[in-house]
Every structure is written in structure tokens, then in C-alpha cells.
Amino acid sequence: MEDNASLTFEGWGYRHASRKHFAVRDLTLEIKPGQRVLLLGASGIGKSTILEGAAGLLGSDDANDGASGAGTGSEDSDGGVTEGRILVDGVPVRKARGRVGLVLQDPDAQAVFQRLGDNVAFGPENLNVPREEIWRRVRESLDAVGMKGVQLHRSTMHVSGGQQQRIALAGALAMRPGVLLLDEPTANLDPDGVDQIVDAVGQVLASHHSTMVLVEHRAGPWIDLIDRVVVLGLQSSEQTAARVNGTGREGDIDRSGFRRTVVVADGTPDQIFRDPSIDFAALGIWVPERYRRPEDEIRRIHTPGEPDTDPALGTGETLLSCRDLAIGRGGKAIAEHINLDFSAGQITALVGANGAGKSTLSLTLAGLLEPVAGAVEASPALAAGAQGGSPFAWKSTELASRISYVFQNPEHQFAKGSVLEEVMVAPLRCGMSPQKAESRARELLKRFSLSQYANANPYTLSGGEKRRLTVASALAAAPRVLLLDEPTFGQDRRTWMQIVTLINTLRADGVSIIVVTHDRELVTALGARLVELVPERARGEWQGGGDEDPASVSGASSAASDSSVAATSPAAAVPPAAAVSPTIPASVVRVSEVNARTEPPKASSRSPLLASLNPVHRLIGAFVISIPLLFSLDWVSATVAVAIEAVLLMGIGFTPWRIVRSTWPIWVGAPTSALAVLLYGKSGGDTWWQWGLMHVTDRSAELAVATAVRIVAIGVPAIITVLGIDATDLADAFSQILHLPDRFVYGGLAGLRLFSVLQDDWAALTASRRSRGLGDENKFKAFGPQAFALLVLSVRRSTTLATAMEARGFGGTGPRSHARVSEVHARDKAFIALCLAIPTVALIAAGFAGTFSFMGGA
Amino acid sequence: MSTATTNAQPNLKWRVVDIAVASVIGVASAFIYWLVAILTYGPWEAMDLLVPGLPGLFNGLWLFAGPLAAIIVRKPGAAIYAEVIAGVLEALMGNMWGGAATFLIALVQGVLAEVAFLAFAYRKWNLPVTILSGALAGVGCWGYSFFTNLQAIDLGGSYGVMYLATTVISGIVFAGVLMWYLYVAIAKTGALDKFASGREVRNA
């Protein structure tokens, strides 16, 4: 199948909302059908903007289609300004929906649906492809990315990052794009995930011959797929030669006098990477192995003032140790009998595949997660002044001045409105005087080149700056142990170098550094000791895991990991770990197996009968039971309703205990309301008790009983009938049966999926606050700032999600098809009739008993 | 920042990012509502015994999704949409206001929060209108309680009046004033640059 298109930029430019300068301006570039282009340029030069533009995600439909150069921009509804145009096979890209497929960096941000098959089907649905054709394409696309036969109902939350990213790629392919745009698709993946994606893209290109544009700092693994490399630069008004280097602030590189975005080099990989005039290091680019010149090679780095001790060993003064430690979340151990020591001035790299438990181990070491068994012990020197030697038992402020943790996502860590205050948090919490805390903070900001942003809002910094700020804040309270979770994830080579240098300088302070990482070059540059977490029955990716012959590891590199370093560098014959520090035996920690391969479809109710009903009918049923009961507040109708419901629920297999357990909040809420009614309700008959405004009478007591029983009568079925409904099925029913607009229904559904992500965010925020000395505050006081951080994160996540959804063609005004059918059967109608019968019988009974009381009566 | 903002020609068409952000405000709010429910259960009864209707002061903590989504997204129906999304999620999780019924209370509160912005034809986005929105959401919350769980209490009696007063005050404070400053704080992080609401703060 050959389906490819040309991509042409004609004087194209875009200025983002609230920015003074254009991100890209007057770009002219022609990409021929079937070409595979690697797009290079310094961070902040606008590569992602170019891809978003090419995917038709920028500008407005009614913007000028005419070929026009700079100076004729028009503002779109995002507040951005577009100039010129981008054409796909000669058609303006916003009019060529589905011709361009975009895969973004963060796999988690691109999943709209819970079930993986639905995610792949989403693009074709938005293009109004007929249903049978959609599922044919879903299977084809999953085959193409090497996921043949995968269960379509599997949850996207339960697959690895590499698989998630392959699903995203399949989702783009299912739209049958002529052009495939890949925006750092492997930046967030472990080495195994990188291979999966490169292989999958290779297969796709071989079968579809699509045009491809790739943006990637680490082009090594991709190099065989590339046939053209384009290097971008900026041209300013006063110079004729283009400037290609980034200066200072990434994300906002020096644009003084910026006139246009130009192609400074264009050719085959051989031509470009062998061109001595291009300074790849300054561009932030990792030169692929085979083109590496001596100065591009990553070696052990050295910084002024570093101690002469081996970083893999440190000074020998042990600060923290694990004694027969078992780690896990929720009391379930994933690894046991861990014995490790961490000493001052030592750098330890915790490595292992995604999901192996590196974060679990590092959080346990940092006193943020309780050991399942065994102990994490602080040395007497480290524990001096704190309560006991177990970091998990320490108070938050005790922890912050001893062990600090830098989270992978800097936004999990921010607590204040300015950079300076951010760094002052921990010292202040630990009792330092404000003057001293400020001078300490300013000193750190200077050391980390952040002084100019002292008053800026931390969230507005660039990625690399945010990372430096989190390290600075973690160091502010002078901890002896520092843990960093994936400090180099997704960074370009320049930022990478800054971070590595920074970590190396900490050795001089006698800090024991523990990094969780996938990054082999980081381990090499730091000369770190390796601790690898290896799943049972799997072999280690880094050092062959125990008894195997090291030589067999590099030999088996096609099956295991072959990362950029091991596979193609001249040192390939020697495993990297051994190359780094031959005298240090690297440790292997055995962990339980990562994830199961099969997963049964999830039932949408404990009752098979309820599960077989249409979700909208279940929802309507819940209303039909509840609403009529509100007409009368009396004990007879409420009790009759409860009795019928109990019989019916037990009839379909619910035990009384199960009913109470599923509906526990009702049993909490009913007495509360009943008490209010008893004390302050409508009075009548004998007075039982009176005090102030409280007035308990015959009537109020009767109403209180009726209120409590009725809350149960309304609440129990209202919860049980809807509990467990799958959100996707409900959305399908809203769209197909209630005919609510798809934009809102599926937009809302995408938001709901973020719920589980937000729960993880909340847990990370809680842990980071403890790590920073903010964890001892009372719950109400701590709630506000943490809720704020959660909201900022969720707004960012949803903005990315909106981009991902639009990249799948969502949000247009044209018709959409539906991959799934929301079915309605006779039993759904019968269910509603039954639901209506319950309150009807109850109210008639109340009528006969003479207790019917409209809305509680006068 | 609390100066009146008048948009001569508001763009009322929903973009995908508007829908996504309004949804996630609903989702994050549902999560916070759920936490608040757990935290306030204990104090609730004690306060009701102390002064009848006093726990109405908590109610604003379940009303903020609508006003917040409205002032950020600035599209017609944003308050209703966000509050209903929060309600749907709570219904799917099950909570003490009773499953599907949560959907109804969310709708009532959302509609009333929306009324404030509608009354100014979606042209005024400032602190006073946000306060009005929070107050109206409080009225909706109060009215709904007396239609359901508190039917047996005289809504014009001392408990009813006190409960109205506390709920409206709470709505003004939590869903009105607090949400306005929360919006300004979020906008300062740059997370709202794709929104007119965010650019207004950042360019000020």
C-alpha cells in the first residue's frame, strides 16, 4: 500500500499568544512524497510549532489561503498569529483533515479512552469512516506497529510506555495519513520502549512508504530510517549569516532582530553529520554513534573542586542502608531481601525497565513510602537530632534537612509563587532565620544560574530551568542524601550537560546521590555505581543479571535492549557497566514480574443482569425510582420502597452486606439529615424535648424516621444501578441514544480519564510536600496549596490532551461515525418499567395507609 | 485585576481546548469534593448541634467547579458543563448524596452559577460577577436540599433562613472570591495562555 503526500511550507510563520516574537517566521521548505526527514535545531527554535502547524492544529480555518509572506498575519481563536501557509499535496493543511498524523512526546497524554482499541478507532471515527472499516483499520494499524492480536479491551493504563506510544502511533496510522509527524516520540521511554517505537515506525515506512518528519534530540536509533536531515536556524536583520546557536534561555532563545527561520543545512545524514562546520553540541543534538567525532563522545566528566574519590564508591562513610528491605505499595511486596549501602560522595544509579519498581525503591529510601518489611536505616551521623533512625518515621522537617527527593515532574514540587520563595521553603520550615534562608537561597540561585528569575513564577520557567530550580530547592536545607527521579528525561544535550555537571559538583559537598534513570550516558558521565532492578525470570538489560556471561549480553542485544551506546559504539564488546568502573560489582535487585499479559474484560456491575443493560437506561432507571418518592415524605412509602428494593436486589444476587458496602455513604448521610429534621423539623403533637431552637416533637420524630428511610430508599438503587458503569459506554449512549453533541460528550470523557492520572498526581504532591518539609502542617492548611498545584497540573494535562484529540481530527463540525454501538434491548424498557413500579406501589401503599404527605406536608 | 473587563465581541464558540479544560476542572473538582466530604463529615453534625444551619458554611466547597470553569473558559454553558461533569463522575463513584441524584443537584447548581454570567451576556468577567455566580450556586444548593433531604424542615423557618445565609456566604467566599483569585493565580503560571482569560492576566 503506497500512500504518501508532499508537505510544503510557503513563508509560514506562527506567533503564540502572549509572545512578543514569532516562534517560526517566513519558513520555506519543500518535503517530497516519501521523504523521511529529521528536523534539527536548537531548543526553542520552533520545531514543535512547525509540527503542530503541519498537523493543522494552529491558526483558523478562515485564515487567508493566499500565498503570502510575512506581515499579513491574522489572529486565531487561540490568540496566535499565522502568516503564510502549509500545504499537503497542494491543499491547505487545515482543509486536509486526516492527511497528516501526529504522534506526541508523552504517551500518557495521548490516550483518550480507557480501552486501547477505542483509542486507535478514535481518528477514523472523527473522519466519519464506516464502522466495519474502522475495526478493519484498527486491526491493520495494530498489526503494523507490531501489536498483532492484542486484546482490544485492554486498559491503556496497564501497558508499558513503549506499548502506549505504539498505540498512539497506531491511532495516527488508522487515519491513513500521507504524512507522519513524530515529535520526540521516544523521549519519555526506556531503552526497550525506544526500540519498540523505532521498529514499529520502520515497519510502517516499509509497508506504507509514508512521508515522515521526525523531531528528536537523540537521533541515533533512528538514523537508518532517515534519508534527509534539515537543520534550522534564525536569521536576524543585521546579519546575513544565520545564527543557529541557542543562547541562554531555552524556549525563548535570543530573538533580538529575528527576521526569519531559515534552513542552514539540508542533505543526507552523511552530508550533514560529517559537516565540520556544524556545532551539534551547541544545537543540543546527540550526534548518532557512527558519526561521532572525538569531541562528541560522552565520557566521564570532571568539574573543578571535585573530590578524588571514585564516585561509584564515595568516601566510604555510609549514610543510608537497607537491611533485608522489602518494597511495594499497599503492603504488597514487589521485591524482598534488599541490602544496599549508600555512602557520602557516592553516586548510585538505580536502573531497570519501566515499571520494574525503581520509583518504589527510591521513594522508600527517601522516607516517603513505608517499607513492607525490613528497614531503611539512617546512619547515626545522618539521624543525629531526629527521632530514631528510620526516615519514614521522621517528621517532615526532619526529613527535609536530611534526605531530599527531586521528582521527575518539576510541577509536582512547586509550592510558592516566586523562584526565590521556592528555594527558601525548606530552610524556613527547618527553622532557619528568614535573612539566613534568603542569603542561602540567593547563593543557590547564583550557583544554578537562576538569579535573574528570582521573582519569576516557577511555572513560567523553561523545562531545563524548572529542573535546576527543583534541585536547588531540594539542596536548600542541606540534606546529606539527594534522590533524583529521571533528571535527564526528555532533555536536549545542552540541558543534559548542565544537569550532569550540576550533579557532579554535589559530590564535593559530601552528598550521597541516588539517581533513578534509563540514561546510559548519564551513568557513564557520572561514573556511577549501578543498581539494577530485574524482573524475575528476565535478564538484566544493563549487566546481564548475575550468573550470565557478560559477552552474551551484548551478543543478545537485538532481543534485549541495545541502546544507543552498547550496540554501536566501538566499546560494544564490553558491557557499559564494566567499562565505567571495572572494580565495582554492580548489584542486581530481583523484583516480581512486571505486568500480566491478559486481562479479562471488566464487568460494569456485580450483577450480570445490570451489566447487560444500556448505561443510559440504567441512569434513567435510577431517576425514575428516585424522583416520584420525593413527592411524599412518610414512613410507609419509604419503607415499602426499601422492602421492594431489598427483595429485588437480593433476587439478582446482591447480599445485604454487599448492598450496605456499596452504598456506605448513604448510611452515613441518612442519620445526619434525620438528626437535623428531628431537632429542627416541622413540629406537631407532643413535645418531647426543647432547648433553644431545638424542638423535638411527635411530628418531627416521625419525619426524621421518614427522612432517614427515604434517603435509603432513594440512594441505594440510585447508587447500585449506576455503580460500575463504564464511562466510555455511558458516553456512547449519551451520544447515540440521547443525541448529545459528540464534542462535549467525548471531550468530557477524555477529562474523566484524567481522573486516575490526577489521583497519582495527588499522591506525588503529598509525597513531595513531605520531602520538602511542608508535610507537618495541619490537613486544612495544607489542602489549599496542594489543591492549587493539582488544578494547574490538570489544566496543563487537558491542554495537551486537547492537542492530541485535535491531532486525531476531533472537534470539526462534520459528521462523525461511531466505532461502538450503544445497544438497546427489550430488557432495557422492562427495567425502566420495573423502576417506575417501585415508587408507584410505595406511594399507593402510603395512600391506603393514610400517611401520604405531599412534600412533607405543611 | 478586579477591574471590570468588558469584551466587546466575545468569541462564544467552544474550541476543543475549552471543552477539555472545562472537563478537567470538573474532574479535579469532583476529586476535591470527594476529599472535602470525608474531611467535613465529622464537624458537620457538631456544628449543626451548635448553631442550626451553621454547617451550610461548608457548602461552598461543593460549588466552585461552575464559577471557576466559567471565568477561565468564558463560553456559554461552561459553568453548567463543569458542574455536571463533576456530578457524573461522583455518580459513577457513588457518594453520600446518592448516586444518580448527584447529577441533578449538579445541574441545579451549575444552572444557577451560569445565570450570573448569562445576565451580563458573557461580556463581564470580573470579581463581582464571579461572587454573584457563587452566591446563586449557593441558593441552588440550598433549594435542592429542601426539595430532597431536608423536605421536613420549614424552609422559611429559622433553620431554613440560617441554612440559606450560611450556604450563600459560603458560596460567595469559596465559589466566588476564592475562585477569582485562584483563576488569577493559575493564569500567572502561564497554564492559561491559550485562553483570553489567561492572556488578560499575563498581559496586565
Automatic annotation (TrEMBL), chain A:
CDD domains (alphabetical): ABC_cobalt_CbiO_domain1, EcfT
Family from the record: Belongs to the ABC transporter superfamily.
Any one Pfam family match given in the protein's UniProt record, by short name: CbiQ
Ranges in a coiled coil: none
Gene Ontology molecular function: any one: ATP binding
Domain ABC transporter, first and last residues per copy: 7-259, 320-560
GO CC annotation, single: ATP-binding cassette (ABC) transporter complex
Database matches in PROSITE patterns: ABC_TRANSPORTER_1, ABC_TRANSPORTER_2
Transmembrane helix found in the keyword field: yes
Membrane topology qualifier: Multi-pass membrane protein
Region (Disordered): 540-559
Protein name (database record): ATP-binding cassette domain-containing protein
UniProt keyword Coiled coil present: no
Residue spans crossing the bilayer: 619-652, 664-683, 703-725, 830-855
Subcellular location: Membrane
Broad class of the protein's primary localization: membrane
Keywords attached to this entry: ATP-binding, Membrane, Nucleotide-binding, Transmembrane, Transmembrane helix, Transport
Automatic annotation (TrEMBL), chain B:
TM stretches of this protein: 12-36, 56-73, 103-122, 129-147, 159-184
Top-rank taxon, per record: Bacteria
Keywords attached to this entry: Membrane, Transmembrane, Transmembrane helix
Keyword Ubl conjugation: no
Keyword Magnesium among UniProt keywords: no
InterPro entries attached to this UniProt entry: ABC_thiamin-permease_prd
Name under which the protein is recorded: ABC transporter permease
